[in-house]
Amino acid sequence: MGFLDQFWQLTIDGLMVGSLYAVIALGYTLVYGVLQLINFAHSEVFMLGSFGGLFAARALLPDDGSVPGGLASVGLVAVGLGVGAICGGLAAFTLERVAYRPLRRRSAPRLAYLISAIGASLFAVNLAGKEFGRQNVDLPDLFHNGTVFTVFGADVSTQSLVIFAVAVAMLIGLDRLVAGTRLGQGIRAVAQDADTAVLMGVNVERIIIVTFVVGGLLAGAGGFLYAMTFNASYSMGFVPGVKAFTAAVLGGIGNVRGAMLGGLLLGLVESYGGYLFQASYKDVIAFLVLVAILMIRPSGLLGERLGRAA
Amino acid sequence: MSTPPAGPPGTGGGAATVPLRIAGSPAGPAGSSGSAGSSGSAGSSGPAGGPARPAWHPSVLFAPARLRQLGALLLVGVLAAIVTGPTGNSDKPLQAAKDSIVDVRIVLYLGLAVALWVLLVLGAQLRGALERVSAPVRAPVGAAYGRRGGPIVLNLVLLAIAIVAPMVVSTAAQQSMVNDIGIYALLALGLNVVVGYAGLLDLGYIAFFAIGAYATAYFTSQTAMPWHAPFVLNPFFVFPIALILAALAGVILGAPTLRLRGDYLAIVTLGFGEIIHLVANNADNITNGARGAFGVPHLSIDLLGIDYKWGIDPLPYYYLLLVIIVVVMIAFGRLERSRIGRSWAAIREDEIAAEATGVATLRMKLLAFAIGASVSGFAGVLFASKQFFNPQSFSLQASFFVVAVVIFGGMGSRLGVVVGAVVLQGLAFYLRDKVPPADRYIYFGAIIVIMMIFRPQGLVPSRRRRREIQLVEEGIGAADSLGVAPTGGQR
């Protein structure tokens, strides 16, 4: 089986995973845009949202182990997404409140934010490990997973379709939010020039919180989608976190559409690369991509600057 | 923080503070927007916290800000109960948390929270009282530290303690003093160059340690790993090799990254650390995979009539490490005061000005990164020849732990980071039976955050670093090489 035979299947898998990366990457990019800061603990927001959604969906599943169908499935996925998003949002809010705001109040040096985020991340990961156990937690099927249709001979499963559709809906929603609403205007204003934004009557403090929460909502919902495909564990955040960050840098950090493009591209590159080389080195590919972009085009494909892009 | 430090030469001194602060818009974004002056987050003792408060009155207790503080502390109390509570599992995800809260201990934690709150409310008075009580104790130490030659006496006393200490403790504690405290003190000294001197963040620091350890296995033993050198070297000869290899890895990693923003370095090193860990763990036919390298020879010396072999006994390793640590501390002290050290300080405090005055900023940052990496590689050789190791010793958590040690001890302070290693590893040793090893990182994470919020300069701060942080918070200069401070501060 050559690469070309598998091409379309790999493309579909890559797009599915890539759309998840894009959703998580938005959290990095939004916070970066507003604060010029890499939110290191974002991967933990993703992890907590994932657990939240997973536990909620599992609690509502029928006890007999049967796979629900029809409206029940739709409801379960919706509940999982909702609870995941809420958990992610709450986690992001708490994170901002505890690990970032006290530092901002004193205008601490940048290094302090990074370190404090690492501390928060370490705390959250290991607390989750303690509370939820340190094994992988599987989410039982929420719907019958079959082939919906084929594209050029490649199967598109219900699951990939659901994930892709939800992720794209979230991406479009966020794009509209940033580009078209008053809130988005505020976010862009702060990203462009915080000091001037204050003079124009933008409540920077509020914008920062909202940005964190929006990123958290997306990451939480994305976490649930991730748990649906793979599984959840206390340390699950790290690898997708680094990849999503890579995606954000690939598209141009701070740039909302860039993060979306970067996520999808990275998913594709990884899918092709994993097939061409070795599946176990899949995780290394993202890292190599990151180093390569930093060397060749550090501002990313679409350029940095949240303010200009949207 | 109570005694106003006389500004060390070069940082502008106290007089410059006032006019510049006015220029930098005193009522910045944070002040003018929204919840101004609430300081609700867990009792932040900001610059305005202490001195200029009017006479105390009971109604202070019920001011909204105070009540919010109480609420935050109670939440922290509940969290502390959960952290120290029973371990849960994924079948009943919330059970463990529930068990922790519905428990007698919660009374203790909430009581502690209230007590802490009362302490904070009475903070100003108490601080005054404490100052009066502790003044007779602090004065001689402070004076000794301030006087020329004073630190030498203090350091000699500490050194004497370090020499005597292992003789009075158990063998298990001796082992821990070598493997945990000694090695980590050395690692922290190395990372201190990166974080403390150059103001960069390296999150994959342990990867260089792994490079040193695997290089030792490669060069000194034909059996430790499937992949080995065609010859066998004495471990002592591996020290320079590991040093160079680690420094080289640091340069290769740092060169493309450091050209950009410094915060990218953090994530690139993070990825690098994880890759090294992955490779060490998975490459069975090179590194022996997860089973680890077994049978690396102990250190031995046979030179100029001296014939000595280090063995199972931890004490000889301890004293060797102690000598190395003292040498490294002295060397880095010299380095800090050299042209290079002053360049690092200049880069931290104002990168653009440094560049304009002819400091080769990129090269200096790279140098710091390489020096830090080489110390880590050096420590790796010691570690590998001391004992059996496997990839678990090189996990990401270990990297974070070194960061925690440096932050806790005081970045930029050589004595501080060693003290940090002693205290944190001592704590871990003390808790070894009481807390599962994996759970320790909950506490370390919490310590990092708490230090960053309340005492960013660390336990034993470096005077210059403390001053820098203070100045940054007043809106002057910088304290790291990561670029401009994030928005939303009071600049």
Note the main attributes of this structure.
heterodimer; A: about 300 residues; mainly alpha; two-stranded antiparallel ribbon; 12 helices; 2 strands; about 75% helix; about 5% strand; B: about 500 residues; 2 domains; two-stranded antiparallel sheet; 20 helices; about 65% helix; about 0% strand
Major beta sheet, strand line-up of chain A: 1-2
Q: Give the chain pair forming the largest contact, with residue counts.
A: A-B, 67 and 83 residues
Order of helices and strands of chain A: HHHHEEHHHHHHHH
Task: Indicate the structural class of chain A.
Answer: mainly alpha
If you had to describe this structure to a student in words, what would you say it looks like?
The complex is a heterodimer of chains A (310) and B (491). With 310 residues, chain A is an all-alpha fold. In chain A, 75% of the residues lie in helices and 3% in strands. Chain A has one domain. In chain A, a hairpin with a 2-residue loop joins β1 and β2. In chain A, α1 crosses α6 and α2 runs parallel beside α4 (110-132). Chain B is mainly α and 491 residues long. Chain B is built from 20 helices and 2 strands. A two-stranded antiparallel sheet of chain B has the order 1-2. In chain B, α3 packs antiparallel against α5 and α6 crosses α7 (150-164). Residues 1-52 of chain B have low confidence and may be disordered. Chains A and B meet through α3, α4, α7, α8 and α9 of A and α2, α11, α17, α19 and α20 of B.
